[in-house]
């Protein structure tokens, strides 16, 4: 009997304590826990935006983006070297024509002691050598631009053929000098070379 009273008393105490514990409960809150880093100014993520806003943002980015520098071709390339050599050939031809000329050997028999180191002779040899180098460099650099099937009407073919003919005429003039008539071959070679340059200028 004593045991039953103790059990009943213990059960009553437990029920009373349970009531006290639930009395302090409040309604369940689903709000985010308070944090010391939280401020009301923090905005939520924007998952979608108005098209006008996006367009305005893109225009702002374009306005503030630095302008891209225009492409500038390098000053020294293999193609430019060929071009400069051609122009140099024309300058040497002009200088050869203006330099003081020795008397031509009309009979083709010049004295052995004849001076061949004057400015006219030196410039003539330089012009012919430069013309040959120009033709060789053009064939190396622009080999794929020349097509026999296109015929003489193609500007690249005209340039190649006239340039080669001009160089051959200048080399013939140098090999014939100081014999009579070499000046005409040299001048004609310079003119033909100038026509070749003009085609692709």
Plain-language structure description:
The chain has a domain at 78-101 and 115-199. It contains six helices and no strands. The chain has helices at residues 2-23, 51-64, 78-98, 119-141, 155-176, 182-199. It is rod-shaped, with a radius of gyration of 48 Å.
Task: Describe the structure using short key phrases.
201 residues, mainly alpha, 6 helices, 60% helix, rod-shaped
Secondary structure layout:
Layout: H1 2-23, H2 51-64, H3 78-98, H4 119-141, H5 155-176, H6 182-199
Helix pairs in contact: 3-4, 3-6, 4-5, 5-6
Short description:
The protein has 201 residues and is mainly alpha-helical. It has 6 helices and no strands.
Question: Which series of helices and strands comes N to C?
Answer: HHHHHH
* Beta-strand percentage range: under 5%
Largest sheet: none
Distance between the termini: 128 Å
* Uncertain segments: none
Number of β-strand runs: 0
Fraction of helical residues: 55-70%
> What does the average pLDDT come to?
76
Task: Provide the structure class.
Answer: mainly alpha
Helical segment tally? 6
Alpha-carbon Rg, integer:
48 Å
Mass-distribution shape: rod-shaped
């Amino acid at each position: 009997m004593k045991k039953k009273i103790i059990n009943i008393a213990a059960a009553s105490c437990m029920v009373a304590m349970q009531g006290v514990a639930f009395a302090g409960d409040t309604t369940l809150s689903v709000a985010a826990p308070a944090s010391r880093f939280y401020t009301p100014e923090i905005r939520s993520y924007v998952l979608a935006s108005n098209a006008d806003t996006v367009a305005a943002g893109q225009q702002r980015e374009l306005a503030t983006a630095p302008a891209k520098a225009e492409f500038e071709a390098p000053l020294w390339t293999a193609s430019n070297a060929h071009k400069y050599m051609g122009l140099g050939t024309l300058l040497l031809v002009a200088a050869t024509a203006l330099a003081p000329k020795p008397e031509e050997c009309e009979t083709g028999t010049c004295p052995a002691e004849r001076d061949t180191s004057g400015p006219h002779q030196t410039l003539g040899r330089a012009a012919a050598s430069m013309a040959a180098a120009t033709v060789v460099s053009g064939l190396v650099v622009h080999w794929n631009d020349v097509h026999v099937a296109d015929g003489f009407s193609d500007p690249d073919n005209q340039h190649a053929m006239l340039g080669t003919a001009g160089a051959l005429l200048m080399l013939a003039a140098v090999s014939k000098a100081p014999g009579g008539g070499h000046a005409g071959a040299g001048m004609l070679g310079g003119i033909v070379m100038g026509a070749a340059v003009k085609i692709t200028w």
